[in-house]
Design a protein that fits this description.
By secondary structure, the protein is mostly helical. It has helices spanning 3-26, 33-40, 44-50, 54-78, 85-102, 104-113, 116-123, 133-143, 151-172, 178-195. It contains ten helices and no strands.
Length: 199
């Protein structure tokens, strides 16, 4: 990476880091582009070289932060030797839940802003993600002995199930602490995957 590219990357990273700090402290609605550039120490025009608006930077932040969480979970999975697809998925979910339990501001940010559209458009296909979600997601299902009716729908349903059930359990232990929820959640994921197996 040359000096110019390195300088561009530093500015983009400064904007992303500043936006994340402001979004998690005061919320997206109360954060302006002026706030972001002022705290990042860059000109307002520089912001628009990288992002269309504050929702674009939010989506790229979700891709970046979520991909970092997923990379750590995937790295841990590679050390296990787990073969079956459903147990790989359970391991990844368990690891991601543990990471988000340790970083509640990240959980708040991702859970409030993650939708299927963001996941599909930013996380699966965007260069903002640190890892190539699309290829990982595709290869996991392609290498599986079991085949599924619609893997994309299955991934969507798993993400929505985990996202909606874990948020309150992690933050408020409501209705139960997340470690009490996990066995029920994992059983539900296994049942969901089984119900979508091709016959």
């Amino acid at each position: 990476m040359g000096k110019v590219d390195n300088n561009k990357k530093q500015k983009e990273d400064a904007l992303l880091n500043t936006a994340f700090d402001l979004f998690t402290r005061q919320g997206i609605q109360k954060t302006s582009i002026s706030d972001i550039v002022s705290q990042a120490g860059v000109a307002k025009g520089t912001f628009y070289l990288y992002f269309k608006d504050k929702y674009d930077i939010r989506n790229k932040l979700i891709a970046k932060k979520a991909s970092q969480v997923f990379r750590l979970a995937d790295d841990a999975l590679q050390q296990t030797g787990i073969d079956s697809l459903d147990e790989k998925i359970i391991f990844l979910i368990d690891n991601i839940i543990d990471q988000l339990s340790e970083n509640k501001s990240l959980l708040n940010f991702i859970s409030k802003n993650l939708s299927w559209g963001v996941f599909k458009n930013e996380l699966l296909y965007s260069s903002a993600a640190d890892i190539d979600f699309y290829n990982i997601y595709s290869s996991i299902f392609e290498r599986s002995e079991k085949k599924y009716k619609n893997p994309e729908v299955l991934v969507f349903m798993i993400i929505e199930l985990v996202n909606s059930t874990c948020f309150s359990c992690i933050l408020y232990s409501d209705p139960v602490p997340v470690n009490e929820l996990k066995p029920y959640l994992f059983d539900a994921v296994r049942q969901l995957m089984k119900s979508m197996e091709s016959t």
